[in-house]
Amino acid sequence: MSDINRQWQVAHAPQSEGMCLERSCFGHVDAAIPEPGEGEFLIRNTHFACEPLVHAFVRGVPGRIDPLPAGAVMQGHAGGVIVKSNHPDYAVGDRVHGNMDWADYAISTGEGLQRPPDGYDLPTGMITLGMTGLCAYIGMFDIGQPKPGDVVVVSAAAGGIGVIAGQIAKLAGAHVIGIAGGAEKCARLVSDVGYDVAIDYKNEDVTARLNELAPEGVNVFFDNVGGEVLDAVLVNIANWGRIVICGGISGYDHPGMGVHNIIIMAQRNVTMQGFWYSEHADRFDEGIARLGAWVKDGSIREVFDIAQGFEATPDAARGIFSGANMGKQLVRIAEEPQF
Amino acid sequence: MSDINRQWQVAHAPQSEGMCLERSCFGHVDAAIPEPGEGEFLIRNTHFACEPLVHAFVRGVPGRIDPLPAGAVMQGHAGGVIVKSNHPDYAVGDRVHGNMDWADYAISTGEGLQRPPDGYDLPTGMITLGMTGLCAYIGMFDIGQPKPGDVVVVSAAAGGIGVIAGQIAKLAGAHVIGIAGGAEKCARLVSDVGYDVAIDYKNEDVTARLNELAPEGVNVFFDNVGGEVLDAVLVNIANWGRIVICGGISGYDHPGMGVHNIIIMAQRNVTMQGFWYSEHADRFDEGIARLGAWVKDGSIREVFDIAQGFEATPDAARGIFSGANMGKQLVRIAEEPQF
How far apart are CA B53 and CA B225, in angstroms? Predict the structure, then answer.
C-alpha cells in the first residue's frame, strides 16, 4: 500500500454560467494517508461513480447542496474496501460506498455509506442497487407506473439510470422507446439493453420519430434531459400521460431554450412529477430486493462504462454531460486490496 | 323582435404566429334569423362569455379543437333564452348556455348546452356554475388540494377562474397570494375578492416578492399563465409542492421564452398536473352544488366585468389576453326577451 493519497480538488467552479465542469475545475494534490480516529475507519477506494450530482457538488443546488469552495477535496460517489477500522461495526475488508472524498483514501464514521448487499460486488452495489438503480426503480415504478401495453419513452436512455429504467419498463410489459445520442448507442440500446427501439436525437427529428413510433401517444415519459427533448415528448404525449422528472441534464450543460409546451399538459390531462432520491428512502429496501433479484436471474443486464485509472476521472466525470458514456460511467482507480 | 341576426364571423386567423386575436380577425355580418327544425330550438342570446377558448376556436388545439375556417360563424360560450322550440324537452322562455354561434340567435338540439340550475340567473349559471367555476373547483380542490395553513398562489388571479380559485383556496383555510397585472387590480383582489395579498407582475419582481411573502415556500400553485410566472413560482415552490396547470395564457399571446426551472421539480418532489375540463365531468354535479351554495351564502363573491352591446365583443374577447378585465369578462348583447 502506497503512502500517497491522491485527491481530486475543486480548483474552481465552472467559469461561465452556461458551462459544465471544465477540465481545469479539477485540481489534483498528493496528501498523506489520514489516520482514522475513534469511531472512524479508513477506506481504500477502488471505484468512483460519475453521477450528474458531481456538477451539483461543485455548483451547488439551492436549498439542497452547498457548493464546495475552491481548494476543497472534491466529493463524489466512491466505493472501496476498509483497510483500517476503529469502528465496532465496520471491519477491515468490508466493502462500503457512498458520497465521500474523491481520493485514494477516505475517512468515514459510516454515516451516509452503504454496503453492497451480500452476494453482490461493489459496482453492482454502488450502481444497480444504489442511487442509480433506485432512481430508475422509484421513478419508473412509483411515479411512471407503466402498465402492460403502455408506450414508455426514456431520455438519456444510454445513461446509467436510463439503461435500468428502460429494462424496468420492459419488465412491466411496456413498449419502450429510448432517446440517445448517436447511431451506435441507439443500436446497442436495442441489442444489448433490450429497448424496443431507440431514437438518435443527434441525427433524427425526435418529434417526428415519436409521432411515427407512437401514433397513439406516449403514456409514460421518464425524463433525464429536459429542454427540447421534453418539448418533443409533450407534443406526442397521450391523454392522461405521466412524465417523471428524474433529471434535466440538458440544463446542467447550458441554460437552454426552455420548455415551451407545458400547456399541452392541460390539453391532455398530463401529470409531471419530480422526485428527489433521498426523500424516498422508504422505498429503498423493496427496490434493492427486486433489483437484486433481477440482476441475479438476468432480467436486468448491467451496463457499465469503466474508465481505467485515477487520472481518467476528470474526463469521465465531464463526459456524462456530453453523453460520452454507454451505461453507467465508473472509474476504476485501484485493484481491491487483498487481506 | 328584430328580424336581423347579427353574427360574428372568423374573418381570418391571427396573421402572425405570436399574435393573439386581432380586431380584424372578427368579421360581422347580418343574416336572417334561422328557423328551428324538428327537434331543434332557437335561442335569443343575451350574453357572450369571453373564454380563452375563443382563441382555440380560431387557432385550433391539436387533437382537441379544429380551427374554424375563415368565413365560419365564430363559436363561443353564449347564453340566452329560447324563443321558439320544436324540442319536447325545451320550452320557450327556458334559459340555456354553452358553446354556440356568437350571434344574436342560435339554433340548437340541446347537445352540449346546459341550463342554469334553478334559482340562479344566466350569468351565474354560465360562469360560476359553468366552466369557469368548475375549472376553479376541479383544479383547486381535486388537483391542488390545499390544506389549512398552506400557501397557495394563483396566477391571472383577477381573471374569471382566478377570482373563484382564490376564494376556494381561502375556504380551504389557505393563505392565498394572487398574481395580477396592475396596482388597481391587485388592490381589488384584496378588498373585493378576499385574497390575502396580491403581487403586481407588471411592476414588481414576482420571484423576489414570493420569496418575501412565502419564505417557507409555495405549497400549491394554480397556474393560468405559464412562462415567466411559472418559472418565478418554481423558484419559490415548497418541497412536495403541487402545481395545477389550468391554462397558459402567456403562451397564447406570444410564444414566450419557455420555462427554464422544470428541474426544480426533481429537487423538491414537485407534482405538476394539467386538466382538460370536459374530461372531469364526473365532478360537475358536486362542484355545481357546492359552488351554488357558496354563492347563495356569500362565501364566494362573483366578479363580472360586463361589456355592453354586440359591438363590444371583439375588444372584450381580445382584452382577456392582455388582462384588460377584472373578473370574468362578459358581453351583454341584448335584454332578456319577455314572454
Answer: 14
For the B4-115+303-332 domain, the top CATH level (class) is alpha beta
What global pTM score does this model have? 0.93
Task: Give the pLDDT confidence score for residue B59 in this predicted structure.
Answer: 82
Q: In 3D, which of A188, A52, A107, A230 has the Cα closest to residue B258?
A: A230
* pLDDT at B17 (0 to 100): 63
User: What's residue A247's pLDDT?
Assistant: 85
Q: Give the single-character DSSP code of B326.
A: S
Q: How far is B224 from chain A (nearest CA, A)?
A: 9
Distance (Å, whole) CA B54 – CA B71 = 15
Q: Give the domain ranges of chain A.
A: 4-115+303-332, 143-278
Tens digit of each residue's pLDDT (9 = 90 or more) over B98-142: 999 999 999 999 999 999 999 999 999 999 999 999 999 999 999
User: Amino acid identity, residue A301?
Assistant: R
Using the beta-carbon criterion (under 8 Å), do B274 and A255 form an inter-chain contact?
no
Query: Which tens digit of pLDDT belongs to each residue from B52-66?
Result: 888 888 888 777 788
Asked if A271 and B274 come within 8 Å (Cβ–Cβ), the reply is yes
- Where residue B322 falls among pLDDT bands split at 50, 70, 90? confident
Q: What 8-state DSSP symbol labels residue A161?
A: H
b/e B151-183 (16+ beta carbons within 10 angstroms → b): bbbbbbbbbbbbbbbbbbbbbbebbbbbbbbbe
Grid cell of B70 as nine digits: 375563415
Residue ranges, chain A, pLDDT below 70: 1-2, 16-19, 251-256
Point out which residues pair with A330 in neighbouring strands.
A49, A306
CATH superfamily of A143-278: NAD(P)-binding Rossmann-like Domain (3.40.50.720)
Put simply, the answer to whether A245 touches B262 (Cβ < 8 Å) is yes
User: CA dihedral defined by A92, A94, A100, A102, rounded to 10 degrees?
Assistant: 80
Helices B160-171 and B284-296, packing angle to 10 deg: 80
Burial code (b: 16+ CB inside 10 Å, e: under 16) for B78-95 equals: bbbbbbbbebeebeeebb
The predicted pLDDT at position A206 comes to: 98
Instruction: With a cut of 80, say whether residue B4 has pLDDT above it.
Output: yes
Q: Which residue of A has its CA nearest to B228?
A: A258
Contact B284, B134 (CB under 8 A): yes
CB–CB of A258 and B255 under 8 A?
no
Superfamily of domain B132-278: NAD(P)-binding Rossmann-like Domain (3.40.50.720)
> In chain A, which residues have their Cβ closer than 8 Å to the Cβ of B273?
265, 269-272
Name the closest residue on chain A to residue B217, using Cα atoms.
Answer: A63
The residues with which B99 forms a beta bridge, in sequence order, are B77
Domain A4-115+303-332 and domain A143-278 have a common topology:
no
Q: How far apart are CA A49 and CA B116, in angstroms?
A: 63
pLDDT in tens, B17-37: 656 788 989 999 999 999 999
Number of neighbouring beta carbons within 10 Å of residue B240 = 13
